[in-house]
Amino acid sequence: MKRNISPRLILAVVTLALCGVLGWRMFLSERPAVSRVETAAAKTEPASMPSISTSQPHPKQIQNSDEDAPNVAIVSDRPRFAAEVSPAQRRAGEKDVDLQKASVSLRDYRKAFKQNPVGNNAEITSALLGQNSQGTRYLPEDAHLSDKKELTDHWGQPLFFHQISATNMEIRSAGPDRRMWTPDDEVLR
């Protein structure tokens, strides 16, 4: 018994296959490529503590140290991450009234919903202001809010919420210099 395959079916299968191949190629081209040279150089560089940088990260040249591979310089523009939170930052955060208000509000929300609110500052603030499934406000009336309805510190800078887990959140204030990720930041968990 001979089956006749419709030309439309063949065209559809070929089109789907072509779309799949092109989509896969686009996916691969968007991923950051790690070359053998960069990997070899990363293995030979000594591990160092990340430093706090207030400027934009600058590309650095990585020289290949592998004898078998060609000696090619690769520009690496990796972000510089802030160092671990210092005890002084934690002590300052524990004394900061605005961070305490945010922390208590998050604690109360967490007790009601069994998890922290998720999202950016504006989304978290919205949930704490009563835009939640229970319609309950958890923020006190005197909490500092920006024009964008974001929680702010007493310097007028938006707080940064770092969701560590469903029940643990770090709250960061930019501190007196009004710049985030500097040594004077105030942090509360």
Task: Output the keywords.
single chain; 189 residues; alpha+beta; Glycoprotein, Type 4 Pilin; 2 domains; three-stranded antiparallel β-sheet; two-stranded antiparallel ribbon; 5 helices; 5 strands
Task: Explain what you see.
The chain has helices at residues 7-30, 36-44, 87-95, 97-113, 121-128, and strands at residues 60-62, 74-76, 160-163, 169-173, 186-188. The chain is an alpha+beta fold and 189 residues long. The chain folds into 2 domains: 36-46 and 54-76, no CATH class; 87-188, Glycoprotein, Type 4 Pilin. The strands form 2 sheets. The protein has a 3-stranded antiparallel β-sheet with strand order 3-4-5. Strands 1-2 form a two-stranded antiparallel sheet.
- Summed up, the helix count is 5
Number of strands: 5
Main CATH class of the largest domain: Alpha Beta
How widely separated are the two ends?
73 Å
Q: Structural class per helix/strand content?
A: alpha+beta
Q: How large, in whole angstroms, is the Cα Rg?
A: 25 Å
Helix content: 25-40%
What percentage of the residues does DSSP assign to strands (E)?
5-15%
The shape, in one word, is elongated
Question: What secondary-structure arrangement, pairings included, does this model have?
Answer:
Elements: H1 7-30, H2 36-44, E1 60-62, E2 74-76, H3 87-95, H4 97-113, H5 121-128, E3 160-163, E4 169-173, E5 186-188
Antiparallel strand pairs: 1-2, 3-4, 4-5
